[in-house]
Amino acid sequence: MSALLLQELLQAPSETLWIADENSKLLLQQGFQFDGDLLSNRWDIAERAEGKVGRSFFSDFHFEELDRNYRRIVYSVSKEKAIVHHIINQAPHFLGEGGELVLLGEKQSGIKSYAAKAAERLGTAKQLQKHGNEYSSTNRVDHPSAGELIGELDYPQLRSLPELNGLYSKPGLFGWNKVDKGSALLAQQLTTELPKEGAHIVDLGCGYGYLSAQLAPLGKFHFTATDNNAAALHACERNFHSLGMEGVVLPSDAGSELESGIADLVLCNPPFHQGFQVEGDLTDRFLQHSARLLKMTGTALFVVNEFIPLAKKGPHYYSEVQLVTREKGFCVYRLHP
Asked: Per the confidence metrics, is the pTM higher than 0.85?
């Protein structure tokens, strides 16, 4: 995707907005330069882009913060359908007449369907070009009034969901409207792995804050929750506030920005997908930073899919790795420095 994406970014770059999801990460290497603006819901992408692009924005795709219109919007479509629909819906508001929305993606990304939806939204004919294993769709805004909105219309709104016992979540966050089975299994272990009163808990890859919310009623703790995703941070912060939890919610790439040796307990259900791809080193990064964050007397609790070889990876960072339980395709591990 990088070659096709780069080709599109080099057309009128100063008048282009690059919507950069995790699929765009490979381009942001040393020596890369883009004169336009970048908007991403990924903390690591927005941070890596600093100094390499005209302006870098980190948010849950809040276009209104950009304070300008564009001639072109270039977007490699995200894995989350709700995000793609939101961006297609917003595009006409930030493209002048004659402006272009360029969508990119491989076949499995749903690009053909998104091309049709973009044409419907912008009131144009569907346009799709094949480039090897990749496709591009360029839709021009030819009329001041765009077509009907597509998909879910209240993407920005947090929702208190009964299936999450009233916790807040929203589209744009992986598994946003359900309790992850692995996290539920880890939460079941918390009563027997209970830290001391006043302990500092670090929730790595916190999502909407489910694990912290399950631990909070069991004692008085201070929480630091981190995630790379803007929607997750927004939801987790709301849940901390609504539950009266003591702590902070911070953007971070696997906890890399946090101070060493602060945690009595680390909770982690690490992701293993980066966009549409399985990225094997994600687990290693969470293990590495969790070990750095723990006090020498601390404990880390990880839950992973059973095909993730945490029992082999863990000893590279911890002196003790114990399997706590294995159920329904998931494993919970207890790790000590």
From this structure: yes
